[in-house]
Design brief:
The chain is an alpha/beta fold. The protein contains 24 helices and 20 strands. The protein has an eight-stranded mixed β-sheet, sandwiched between helices. Helix 9 packs parallel to helix 10, helix 11 runs parallel beside helix 12 and helix 13 runs antiparallel to helix 14. The protein is globular and about 90 Å long. The two termini are 57 Å apart.
Amino acid sequence: MSGSGVLVCIRINATRTNHQSWGESQYAEGLARAIRRHAGCEAVLVFRGEEPEPSALPSVLLQIAGPHLEEPVAGMANLLWMISPPNVAPIGMLRRYQALFIGSEKLTSQLRDHGLAADYLPQATECARFHPLRRPAGADEIPLAFVGGYAPRVDRRIILWAAEAGFEPQIWGPGWKDVVPARLWRGERLNSEALVEVYASARILLNSHMPPMATRGFMSNRSFDALASGALVVSDRVSGFHDPDFPEIRQAAGQEELVSTLNQLLAAPPVGLPDRIALHDRVVSRYGFDRAAGVILDRARALISSSSVAAAAYSPGRSIPIPTAGSAASVADDVRSTVLAAAQEIVAALQCLEQGGPAPLPSDTGSAGIIHVLSADLHEMRQLARRGAAPDRTARIERIAGRARRVIEALEDRASPLHLDVGPKLLEPVLTRIVSNEPLWAHGPQGFVRERGKAGLPLRPRAQCAAPGRPVGVFLHLYYDELAPVFAARLAHIAVPFCLYVSTDTDEKARHIRAHLPDAEIRVFANRGRDIWPKLYGFADAHARHDIVLHLHGKRSLHSDRLDDWLAHILGCLLGSEGEVNRILSFFGSILRLGMVVPVTYRAVLGAAHWGANRDIARELARRMALPGPLPDNDRLRFPVGSMFWARSAALRPLQDLALGQEAFPPEAGQVDGTLAHAIERMLGVSCQAGGADILPVMGGGTQLHRKHQLPFTSNRDLREALASGAFND
């Protein structure tokens, strides 16, 4: 099939909306141009989460993998070009690709040792773009240059070593302000044209790598872009990389070696244009995109000829031994084991469906055990398995099966050089990403508008208000008992009768709390379920005594210094002064649709006011609550960020009726996302709005926070109309 036409669908980690800012996009576009130079061949870019469109040409998918490795697309040949190591790549997932090209000789050898047919294909460069002749006429030579951003998580020691040793690297990239002398930093950005001009003008280009790339043996394309431009390269040490045909790439393991190398190169006569062009020509044959495109197309044609394609996760009629289905409700009390058992049960049921037999399923125990990322899937697969295979259920079965398979591979595979390696603190959010086939360390969701969390009502103090028919119920969880005096002072701002209920996790803490809050009813619970379980379920009986409740807890965000003032912000919104508390209570008296008053979102967590890693657990909660309709999307989700709020007790009742025990929550491990407690925090708002009630974000009247987004309605009547019109949801 040599020379026959092929469509290569190049899928990258960038999303369609943000791909212009990714260097990976330029890399893929350069490869696409090289593919199109082959007669009859075409290439298109496909973005994260997308699948190729149908085509008249024989098609393959080429996944260019950086930090995230996506699932292959069933029914077509899938090729993988790993240009940097993914955060996790189990052997099972790698086997589902029909061809593996690895940008590291070291990792290629390791994968071959595991029986994978991997081939070494180093990163490449677009030689038509990077060329010595791109140096502007009359431009001065740049003796030493570096282009790339600085961040603490990125190893840029080689650039810092050079500056400390007295060299004068010219640096372009974000994050360098106040890190290197100002004279060295030339700007945050270089456009495409300026970049090639800098490389063509550079005598020596410095290169540095993220630690996973360096230790796994991936020399980045920055080196090859520089070589194609005729520049020499001095890189930090890349394990296992050595090309004797290109002595122009030098590596330095420490500052002493770097200084020696730079002194030697800078003392030599500059490389003239003819020699730079000769170097470029050598790069074309070894590291150019045209060579890489030829290798990829040859393999693509062979796979198309042999009809080699990726199999679906669910394939009726496929003959696979059926393992005995276990019960996810009876496993050990830890997240890893519980989620793994659920995934194994899902796959066992899947295999029964494939062979057309009844699935030996345990009874659906509903609320037993930890509620986790696969809880909703497990329930749904049990339902599907009992109903049996049918064409209209195929897509849903396949999706659930694929999610479970990824979990099994990630949790059971310890042999892969790229196996999952995270501790309990990060396990739950990471598993959520694996289940969803998304990058492990993604930032905000695509298209999320953080400004929506800024809208709020500045509170106008009210001299007095009518007391509710029954005392207010104040529910306070104090894991950090040293904060008891802080809350004692704030609670003095409540002028109406109230009952105080305090939870903590030791008798010693209870005694200390009693000294500052002598009128409180104090209960001691195990430290499980954060503040959520004690307030909602540990004191469920007490909620029935009150129409209006206030939920508080002694928040400390030990994982982030940026959140040190978060508690003060929340208390300033909910208990700022006696007059402001009176105003809040007056809302409940005159706005019957009001279900919850929440603090306006603190500035440091605006980017986290979405589902995060918690939507799958929320699906299980919504199922148990029998909520009508789907969960809101990220832009429509409203909840008390930080889980402190005023509310009508009726707004919380659907959640409280679940009667969750502490065993439904994972053991405490300092988790930052992806747990039942994080999901319930979001479901507080969903529960409120599902009952037809409104959520009102507020802030202290004198604050300058989000000033342009403040909605200062002066009367409760105007506020009632504003809530009804959705003014606080835009």
